[in-house]
Protein 1
Amino acid sequence: MLFSAVRGKLLLASSHSIIEFDVDTANVTVLVGHGGSIVYSVDYDYENRYVYFPRYTFGDIVRFPYPSQNIQLQHVVNTSSFPAGVAVDSANDHVYWVVSDGNTLSRCKSDGTNVVVFTSFSDTFMIRLDFTNRWMYIGYFNTGISKSRFDLTDIRMIANFSTQTLCMDIDLIEQRMYWMNIDSDIKSVNVDGSDVKTIFSMHSFTINYAIGVLFGNIYYASRNQLVMMNKSQGSTPTVIYTDTSFIYSIYVFNSTGM
């Protein structure tokens, strides 16, 4: 079963490579080098078993098979400048992406064909999908988080940012969005926009690029450190891994396998 193979695994994008981190054993495996680009987002195609990520510096999206004994990067699509967020819709064979501080949302087939560009956005940086309920969430680093259907109908804001934010994730079980801003505050909100909470606050200016949530835990990157903490308010963060370079993205395999 796929989920048994990836259960308890995180994928980290460092300055040099995509890394597998086993939460249970703390084993670290370098999966593949990405050419030295910054990688702000990672997503997974559960149906076809590919990891997708945008290469910010190179202006493209690539993928590799995972789990696999023969991991090699495959080019998917060239993007406009500085792709930051990526999300894969396995059911419809679509890959979505947004660029840094951009005004578009783009979509293509998983092989890079049939590119479609949607306009009327601004300050984009992040994107997440809820496959089961068919909702798309887009994060605007100076503004907040919007929610819409995959065809961009029924769009609305569910969270507003007072401080610049570069990372967010969705808990598909709890149906809550989590994000971390540059003041190192971790916040969450129900996907209907209600019950905004501050989970943790360090009151320290740090550019935080990565966050992931699963079950009762939050994982985030603080420069070159991977940190874990409980979702409950007032919990204490614990460093569980230190890399030799910055960690720019975290992908947590969800419990539904979807």
Protein 2
Amino acid sequence: MKPESEKMFYCFFKSPIGVIKLVSSNDSIIEVSFIDTNKISINNTINTIDRYILKLEMTPILKNAVKQLNQWFRKERVNFELPLRLYGTFFQKLVWESLKFLQFGSLISYKEFAAFIGMSKSYRAVSHAISQNPILILNPCHRVVSINTELSGFSGGLHRKQQLLNHEGHLYLECYKNSKNQHNYKPKI
């Protein structure tokens, strides 16, 4: 959980695939999430924020995060150099911290990722933890897919997961818009 007395800051960033909300402490990014681009939704998001703890302000760390995300979307960057702070259970943090080892353009199944972090028998729990990742894109949970390469479990929406994977070179996933079985290309995961 976040400390009650710690001041948090947030901003919105219009990315090529939707509006992103970034939240930081003074020294670390703590959330990257997609929000609906509808003004009413944005206003509802702002109205639900505890204004005593969270403040709309473009701090140096948020400016740097927006700069690096812009570079990433323009394919001028493949890795992020930002401090991340993860709030969750010990198990969630273990899973989330392991996501940073997934390189740009890589793809792995939930089951293989669980084995990679030494938890092959707990792959469903690992999958659930991945679906709760609070720092999208920077902590690349979008690179984890079902064993049959189907898209699943992305809090930003499956269409955005597909767009992120397409951005990283997995264009064959376009076929999932209409039918899951219209292709015969299976990547080696």
Protein 3
Amino acid sequence: MRKIEVLNKKIKLSDNVEVFYEKIITQFGNSAKVDAPKKFIGKRAYVIILKK
């Protein structure tokens, strides 16, 4: 069961997680992208944008 909680500017995610990693969003033409390994093609992902 997926559960996401945001409390006092902190996030708690409970799900069947395979891997967790941090990446920098890069420019891609007039848009942006986040790179991920090919082995994750077709998998569902969460993208969480953090304030600096």
